[in-house]
Design goal:
Largest sheet: 4 strands, mixed
Strand content: 5-15%
Structural class: alpha+beta
Radius of gyration: 23 Å
Shape: globular
Helix content: 25-40%
Number of helices: 10
Distance between the termini: 30 Å
Number of domains: 3
Strand order of the largest sheet: 6-5-4-11
Length: 426
């Protein structure tokens, strides 16, 4: 959240401003309220105390005006298109939450709200030393809780204003193509440092692939994620405990820990695609590995096993340099130009076309890439690194419509949604 007098980043002028930044959202709850998203923090997000208290105060505001109960963090929503952090609580759908609880009296209602807000602080990685004592002290009424939270907020924001400041740190730079390179480019003015234009050398966004890559306990691989997508690989230098250096051109621990990343990601992808098939009311089916991605090198002779192994090795290698992300995860941190989305959609059609040639089975005529769980974006250097592009990869299971015509309709519907989510200008 911005400070007094601080300007809003110009890149926030987009259709889809706020996103639930979690990779996997909790199940057992209804869809988000209309025009809203759930307040979900990614594993790499660190919420500021100012923002947290602004959210808490707005939540308690609504609890004072209603007899509703805040029993789950999933009830806390923010308005999706507002440049200000505007909180909404989902009371009307309370019965549809599997963890629904009822308060026996006002003190219990306050206690439940405090417990939920403590969970929000933990999910947002608020530091333990931050003063959230009002959430851990007995309060008899919502008004008493509000007064205590407001006193804490006034200590860091003398104006006491907790509704007029702008979002900060959720900007989505536009990824486009310029001079043969993928670059962050924007026509907006008053950009924050992250949104300044320049070539892109990595996709260091929290994603399901990155989460798997960082699962190694030793060393802490978070130190190897570049702070900025514009930092060239030649500047990726991490000091070792013995005084040496780690670089992508020498010893690079993310590469040593990468084996099996893509295989594990594809196991998780299968589960997500099957769930998506149920949601869309279609089937899912196995899909040929050779049509999921085209690796740089293939052994000879080429067999299905060779393809699978080469693809897994190739994408493991790219993941070690933070160049692979699920499309849905990527759009939580970036917008995409119309040119980029058109190319990704073209890639999707080409992958399906080659798959149908490889395996001309009956259900293959209904294959389509029509959901975020199926779509991965790869930042691919070309021409020895002098140029680059964004390409689409998918996995060995595919949504399957009844026929080719239905598949094409569902394909088009999804990619229209991608354009909207990517902030493409019409």
């Amino acid at each position: 959240m911005t400070s007094p007098g601080e300007e809003i980043c110009g890149s926030l002028a987009t259709q889809c401003l706020v996103w639930d930044r979690r990779i996997e959202c909790d199940r057992g709850c209804p869809p988000p309220m209309p025009g809203c998203v759930r307040l979900g923090f990614g594993n790499a997000d660190n919420v500021t105390l100012r923002l947290f208290l602004a959210v808490a105060l707005q939540a308690v505001d609504q609890l004072m005006k209603s007899q509703g109960t805040l029993f789950s963090p999933e009830q806390i929503h923010v308005v999706r298109h507002d440049i200000h952090p505007m909180v909404r609580l989902d009371f009307s759908n309370a019965a549809r939450y599997v963890d629904r609880k009822k308060a026996s009296d006002e003190a219990a209602r306050v206690s439940m709200a405090q417990a939920v807000l403590v969970k929000v602080a933990k999910n947002g990685h608020l530091t333990p030393c931050d003063p959230i004592g009002p959430l851990k002290t007995f309060m008899a009424s919502m008004n008493e809780l509000w007064e205590a939270l407001f006193k804490t907020y006034k200590g860091i924001e003398p104006s006491g204003d907790y509704k007029s400041f702008y979002w900060k740190g959720i900007c989505r730079p536009v990824l486009g193509l310029g001079d043969g390179l993928v670059e962050a480019a924007s026509a907006e003015k008053s950009l924050c440092p992250r949104c300044e234009p320049g070539p892109v050398f990595s996709l260091p966004v929290w994603s399901s692939v990155m989460e798997l890559s960082l699962s190694a306990k030793s060393p802490d691989l978070r130190d190897f994620v570049p702070a900025d997508h514009r930092v060239p690989m030649c500047e990726w230098i991490v000091l070792a405990s013995d005084g040496g250096e780690y670089t992508p051109y020498g010893e690079w621990p993310p590469r040593d820990c990468k084996d099996g990343i893509w295989q594990k990601e594809m196991c998780a992808m299968r589960v997500r695609v099957k769930a998506e098939a149920r949601r869309q009311g279609v089937q899912w089916s196995r899909y040929p590995w050779p049509s999921t991605w085209k690796p740089e090198q293939l052994d000879s002779p080429v067999t299905l096993r060779t393809f699978q192994e080469c693809i897994q090795w190739d994408l493991d290698e790219r993941a070690a340099f933070w160049r692979v992300a699920n499309l849905g995860d990527l759009l939580k941190s970036y917008r995409l130009s119309s040119e980029v989305v058109t190319q990704l959609e073209k890639d999707a059609l080409e992958l399906i076309d080659t798959a149908q040639n490889i395996d001309p089975c009956k259900h293959g005529r209904g294959w389509y890439i029509g959901s975020y769980p199926q779509a991965y974006v790869v930042l691919e250097p070309t021409d020895g690194g002098r140029t680059s592009r964004l390409c689409l990869a998918t996995g060995p299971v595919c949504l399957t419509a009844q026929n080719k015509e239905e598949a094409r309709r569902r394909h088009t519907k999804f990619w229209d949604q991608v354009r909207n989510d990517a902030g493409c200008k019409t």
